[in-house]
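Minimal example, chain plus beta-D-galactopyranose.
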Amino acid sequence: MRQTWSLNTDWKFCYGDITETNYDAVHKERYRQPHWIKSGNHGVAKWGYDDSDWIDVHIPHDFVLENAEYDPQVPASHGSLKKGIGWYRRTFKLPVDAVEKRICIEFDGVFRNSSVWVNGHYVGAHLSGYTSFAYDITEVVHAEEPNVVAVRVDASEFEGWWYEGGGIYRDVRLVLTDSLRIQQRGTFVKAKPDPDGEKALVVIETEVASHYEQAISFELHSIIMGPDGKPAGKSVVSTVISADDTMTLTQSVVIQEPLLWSIDSPELYSLKSTLVKGGEAVDTYETVFGIRTIVFDAERGFLLNGQQVKLKGVCCHEDHAGVGMAVPAAVNEFRIRRLKEMGCNAYRTSHNPPSPSILEACDRLGMVVIDEVRQTDATNEGLSQLTSLIQRDRNHPSIILWSLGNEEMNIQGKASGVRILHAMQKLAHKLDPTRKCTYGMNADWLPITRYHEENGFHIDVHGFNYMMRRNWDAYNQFHKAYPDKPFIGTENASTLSTRGVYRKSSTDCSLNLSEHGKVTAIWSNPKREGLVSAYGETYPLWGAQPEEAWKAAEEYDFVGGLFVWTGFDYRGETFPYEWPSVISRYGIMDLCGFPKDIYYYYQARWTSRPVLHLFPHWNWAGSEGEMVDVWAFSNMDEVELFLNGNSAGRRTVPEHGHAEWQVAYEAGELMACGYRNNQLVLTEVVATTGEPAQILLSSERTVLIADHEDVCIIQAAIADAAGRIVPNADTLMTFSVEGPGQLMGTGNGNPESHEDDKSACRSAFQGLCQVLVRTNGAGGDIRLIAQAEGVKRGEIVIHSETSNKRSIASALKHAELLPTGTGQRDAADGGV
Ligand code: GAL
């Protein structure tokens, strides 16, 4: 039967290139020359190569972040982190019966330009840093001896214009199957509910491969398990496959009273496909899918299961504090949950094929997705990247659109752009007839659309990035010109804000405006010109304040929705500043996922929960008597503000705005009371705090699964003696972990921090810091201790659980590999 082994643990890593790669095999010195290329002679990938001075690493791994060399020569757009080349080695033993198996090694993502060798044999190269890939290594592995895989990664080039990291930054696994097997990504499940909801037709395509040297009779059992884990339908077919051949089988199953996948109720079905040969099950493969309908309509926007749903979306890059691009599944899950809590229901994987764990979290938590290729390209390379994306991802119920690219200004309004988009859309329809395509077009949509139409190209769903020249009537104008064309705002707002920063004195950023920033940044409030404050009044020429962007999308039914740039800050794109800024300020949350104030504007508008958020903080010692702008984001009708018990006035909250007061500072307590229909619904207090006195550690989760992969995301807050977070504290903390866990990294969201994310020491930024701790596979209590000078230390205990319960990162299936060798040259190196 199929076995899937995680290969994430126990890798060795060396930063820099290795040029002497030949092995001193039987013929000794002469054949070590780098120009003597023979099969199986690659030294780094041979058992016995001396990697004793390489470091131990765990996949996912981002060596650019780990190397932590901030360098002003590296463009700020890429986070000013020095890039380069690195090598990985991993030794593994296979069970003895593996000689009868087909063996594949699967990589979910390596940034970028990787070459892989196994046991001295070159097995392939993969250029794209974002698509997943796999190699069949059956002929070059041994069951009786240890095996070695070596991977060279050249991350010195860019693919995008943001921080992209470097290394094996997504999961790796070995898959052992019978010679009769279901191909990797070999199932495609198309599920269609009846309009009356009584039943659903599920059409299953299964691609089977045989490596046997004779024809084989077999049965394919396709069993569908319902969201309750019970069988919901099945189909069995018998057939014969010729020697060394592949074939695609199609089956239909009817499911009675299907539970539909939706944003509020993400019901998941699972298809268990089993190949039975001579009465014995020889391969099994699981495909998670959902049953739902998606429609884009020129009048009503987006419809999910027949219901109109306004897309309240965000665009995101994959980058997080402490880990860079190597975001573990548990951290991706945390990020999607944070977005859901804000009321966000849609995610655009800008601008590249995402980590599978993002899509798994969106399926499980109920978040629709636009899945995007890296470039608009119809060469062999471009079409193969699109094919790879669609074949990998087409079973995810969360995906509602394939995006053929973003803002390709060099081609989008030209004949070549028309040809390329046309070829891509045609291929996407062929690979997945169940979904439509979009493309994120910037600049002037009307003339570009007109050009496309005149030249015979019709994108399925128009994707519009921003409003040119702040023309808020642009959606309406488009709809009037093309009343039969559905569209969405694929990229919007680009509001800039810095968590916890409200006044010029608290930052010297304004000294470092980039040339581009000087020309294109807009400060809508001249009071804070030059400062990217947390009020969210700064944006690029093409951008907007959150209130403006949402109003434009909300106003008309025919606008499918919007995708705010971005859900989270990411490294790079430090606009409008340059060095020493290294992190963007576009996020609704910072790089750690700590909400900025504008998070609550969206939450107030995007959820039906009562929301009242008051800011700024109230620690302005030395500014007594000075006027401070106090704002409330809220979905209450009215908010009344009190300073130390005295009313500063009751204000109506405009639907696309906020309540605002100017208050002369005096220490004490600001209190906001939120009213609906004149009834008091919510109060919110912001108080002047005392000096830093203690560290408070907290986490949403205190139980982890001891699977080497699960991660606890811990907030470290600097608090006063009363337990109130000190909003401007930048206390330097030192973290230590006791028990079966490991410190993975830290972050604080400060866009100018050059502190090492992998160090155990980290300053707070505006009172907060984040620590990521991973289980090391053993059960027991993990204790994180945080210490700092002059304050009481903080402690938190997280339990690492060895039970078989599926983890929060439950999509990962883990199996221990047999003990690995260290790679030291020794007697086991037979034949050398
Ligand atoms: C868009 C672009 C994004 C990002 C954003 C910043 O034009 O598609 O990748 O650069 O601008 O505002």
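Residues 295-495+543-573 form a domain with the TIM Barrel fold (CATH 3.20.20.80). Confidence is low (pLDDT under 50) at residues 806-832.
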